[in-house]
Amino acid sequence: MTGEELNRQLATEEDISQKKAKAVIDIVFENLAHALAAGERIDIRGFGTFKVKTYEGYVGRNPKSGASVSVKPKRLPAFRVGKGLKERLNNGQPK
Predict the structure, then answer these.
(1) What is the pLDDT of residues 50-62, one digit of tens each?
(2) Are 77 and 52 in contact (CB under 8 A)?
(3) What does the pLDDT read at residue 91?
(4) Do residue 47 and residue 79 come from a single domain?
(5) How many domains does the chain have?
């Protein structure tokens, strides 16, 4: 599903304009991104948990030349699936 498809579906199901649906979706994702950037954990019951994982820097190798490359430390979002979503996926039962 693309963002545009999500936008259309929300507009249809809630009987609102696509412009308003896009605004709602943008607000939700902006707030999720803001919380993750602040290092907060996001727990959506039945769906899953988002959190930020921190990775230390290390010395890697360029696969083409074999030269050493310094990889900087980084923070990346991580998702862990919730029990409800896991059950829906494994039972094949859309709710």
Answers:
(1) 999 999 999 999 9
(2) yes
(3) 86
(4) yes
(5) 2
